[in-house]
Amino acid sequence: IDFSLKNKVKDMSLAEWGRKEIKLAEAEMPGLMSLREEFGKDKPLKGARIAGCLHMTIQTAVLIETLIELGAEVKWSSCNIFSTQDQAAAAIAAEGIGVFAWKGQTQEESDWCIEQTLFFGSADRPLNMILDDGGDLTNMVFDKYPELIQHVRGLSEETTTGVHRLYERMEKGTLPIPAININDSVTKSKFDNKYGCKESLVDAIRRATDVMMAGKVAVVGGYGDVGKGSAASLRGAGARVIVTEIDPICALQAAMDGYEVKKMIDAVKEADIIVTASGCRDLIRKEHFLEMKDKAIVCNIGHFDIEIDIAWLNKNYGNTKNTIKPQVDLYTIEGKDIIVLAEGRLVNLGCATGHPSFVMSNSFTNQVLAQLELWLHADKYENKVYVLPKHLDEKVARLHLKKIGVVLEELTPEQSKYLGISKDGPFKPEMYRY
Ligand code: NAI
């Protein structure tokens, strides 16, 4: 770890462009901006040294500057080798913030970047909070730098896959600090994962390939929150969508939403576009590749690049790989061309700019509330995984209503009594599924 290195980004001359985009994003991120108003004066995060590992995009820049406005020191890396927007990273670096991120890294560079965020200027100023997306930073601290754990009050985790890793640790009794699961705030998974992918999946496929989507057959592997948004995205563009699932409930949902549900091995035979969205591994393997149509487009929108067996592809047909442009590769398998996007890494951040600001404001408002809660009240929490209480989830939603012209009803005293619910909420019991 090089303590003297302040940041490392691709090109500082992009900072001005990045700043202009950050300004535009702020107008679409009312949740974060209102937290700046609510807490900016008191600086409740004073003393917090937050290491963050989350796609270094324009939206994330607004998150970073919100944490700083609330008093924190922040260092940042991206959680994916392709997801950084270099103009966002440059704009953040130009503010003197320690960001280590650029688009198109090797895995080694990515690990190096995460490592640079562990200390704030000197060996005696380690991180004391973690903000993670996918668990790579968390794992680095827990497994490679366990001596740092004692300094860390808590962590907040953004995504399904990272949360899954945390629950595994909790069950094994190896979670050493309290954690807040951001993903399972309703205002995260039911919005970012769903409505975010609804906008960003087709955006990515279009930017990468310019293919006409209307009339095509698309397959979505997995019908959870991301799968639901992805299938809606493709249907919205006029594609005929087939879903694959292992869970009978999600399969039934897909069918009743009007999608065909099949096995992947059958679906790939007719598919023009194949998208994995499961958080599982090996949805697309050798036998699927061999059955694909000529010019089939294959991509993944789940967190890790193991949903598609790219390793098999590279081992057996790597010699046919023909890069059309960055993050768009054509392989020829037994005479058929297959187009692979973002090397099987999450396509919406690899081939486009991820989700729009407005939906990310919901996710990131949860993140800031979680960091505040853990920084100020870590002693209230055991070494377990928590979700934010419902009143905060409802607060996040409430902060986003005005921007889009939503006007709420208010319970009358009689209605409030009849339902047994305060007019200020929470409006639903914990088991309600939305
Ligand atoms: P989820 O758990 O709600 O849904 C995953 C679905 O895939 C489940 O219904 C499961 O039954 C199904 N599934 C699992 N293995 C399968 C298999 N072998 N074949 C077919 N279906 C299978 O998870 P969620 O929230 O939808 O997230 C999925 C992935 O996307 C995760 O890795 C998550 O971290 C990531 N993610 C990506 C985002 C992006 O912007 N690209 C945004 C949010 C999450």
UniProtKB/TrEMBL annotation:
Please name the SMART domains in this protein's record: AdoHcyase, AdoHcyase_NAD
Instruction: Give the main location.
Output: cytoplasm
Tell me the InterPro entries matching this sequence: Adenosylhomocyst_ase-like_sf, Adenosylhomocysteinase-like, Ado_hCys_hydrolase_NAD-bd, NAD(P)-bd_dom_sf, S-Ado-L-homoCys_hydrolase_CS
Binding, substrate: 57, 133, 158, 188, 192
Annotated keywords: Cytoplasm, Hydrolase, NAD, One-carbon metabolism
Per UniProt, what is one GO molecular function of this protein?
Answer: adenosylhomocysteinase activity
Q: Where is the S-adenosyl-L-homocysteine hydrolase NAD binding domain?
A: 193-354
Q: What class of enzyme is it?
A: hydrolase
Question: According to its UniProt record, in which pathway does this protein act?
Answer: Amino-acid biosynthesis; L-homocysteine biosynthesis; L-homocysteine from S-adenosyl-L-homocysteine: step 1/1
Q: Which domain of life is it from?
A: Bacteria
Catalytic activity as recorded in UniProt: S-adenosyl-L-homocysteine + H2O = L-homocysteine + adenosine
State the family named in the UniProt similarity comment for this chain. Answer: Belongs to the adenosylhomocysteinase family.
State the function annotated in the UniProt record.
Answer: May play a key role in the regulation of the intracellular concentration of adenosylhomocysteine.
What protein name applies here?
A: Adenosylhomocysteinase
